[in-house]
Amino acid sequence: MVNKLGQTFEKTEILILIFCIFSVRRNIIPHIVQIAAKEHRTQTSFNRYIPPQLPMSNEAEKVTGIVWDGRKLFYKGVELDFVNIKVAISDFFMWLNQFSNAVLVAHNGKNFDFRVLSTAVYNCNMYDNFTQIVMGFIDSLALFRSNFPKIEKYNQPFLAQHFCKEEYNAHNAVDDVNMLDKILIAANVSKELMLKLCYNSNSHLLQENFIKAKAKNLPSFHPLIASGVMKMTTAENIAGSGLNCAHLKLIYTRKGEDGLIDVLMSKTAFDTEKWTENKQKV
């Protein structure tokens, strides 16, 4: 039985989407240098190269085979056609538009590919279009872990060897896409099985917004946390929702205690007894 999101996809087109992403430093958001995808049933494919926004190290060039000299982009010595990230995403949307109810599949996508894609789409001010075109995400890593618990490893090169008896270039998005498609077929993974792990395409944006709002608003609750009026988890949920302590005081002034409790209960599991005991401290 599929989850609620999966139940809405009676005629879903499953897309295999893998990114080849390079980050010059760990503390900098990865910059997409290639977007590749393949439709699982028809094998229709998409591929675009994007020049990195920051210089690539010699080690990265050696590992990926991609070289950017500031004007030209090369892959293993062959000059490539390329576009900027906004054009690449726009082209990707146009390609996706030929499918209805598109679901993107990527290996370890929940931790990496989908997060980076979501950030890039948001930064290009194209997120509304994206969530209309892409209905959901599926992380094939989670799929294999849950359905093949006795496999020794779950990285894609190992799965390629295990299911397909093949080795491949794991540093090119097209090769990643083609191999993941082969693995899913060889492992006899059905569309229904994949849809059990499908989740909403807006999930990563909501998560990023929550993290940013929490970082901004949480310091205002430190006195309440220190005095025992509010638990850290409660403060984090309220802060992540976009509210700070000044907002709560304003709500209390305008709508009274009941209004404040309504807001708090809508944001988190609020302890009303704790509030009654400590409301004078807020």
How many strands, what sense, and barrel or not for the largest sheet?
6 strands, mixed
Fraction of residues in helix: 40-55%
> What value does the average pLDDT take?
84
CATH architecture of the largest domain: 2-Layer Sandwich
- What does the overall shape look like? globular
**What strand order characterises the main sheet?**
3-2-1-7-8-9
Number of strands: 9
CATH class of the largest domain: Alpha Beta
**Mind telling me the CATH superfamily name of the largest domain?**
Ribonuclease H-like superfamily/Ribonuclease H
Number of DSSP helical runs: 14
CATH topology of the largest domain: Nucleotidyltransferase, domain 5
Computed structural class: alpha+beta
How far from one another are the termini? 47 Å
Poorly predicted tracts of residues: 23-27, 269-281
Percent of sequence in beta strands: 15-25%
Give the count of structural domains: 2
How would you describe this protein?
This protein is of the alpha+beta class and 282 residues long. The chain has two domains: 4-201, Ribonuclease H-like superfamily/Ribonuclease H (Nucleotidyltransferase, domain 5, 2-Layer Sandwich), CATH 3.30.420.10; 209-281. Helix content is 48%, strand content 16%. It has 14 helices and nine strands. The protein has helices at 4-7, 58-64, 85-96, 113-123, 127-133, 140-147, 156-164, 173-186, 191-195, 203-217, 222-226, 232-240, 245-267, 272-278, and strands spanning 13-22, 31-39, 45-49, 66-68, 73-75, 78-80, 102-106, 134-139, 199-200. A six-stranded mixed β-sheet has the order 3-2-1-7-8-9, with helices on both faces. Strand 4 (66-68) and strand 5 (73-75) form a beta hairpin. Helix 7 crosses helix 8 and helix 10 crosses helix 12. The termini are far apart. Residues 23-27 and 269-281 have low confidence and may be disordered. This is Exonuclease domain-containing protein. Its cofactor is Mg(2+). One of its GO terms (biological process) is DNA catabolic process. Pfam families: PML_C, RNase_T. Residues 19-193 form the Exonuclease domain.
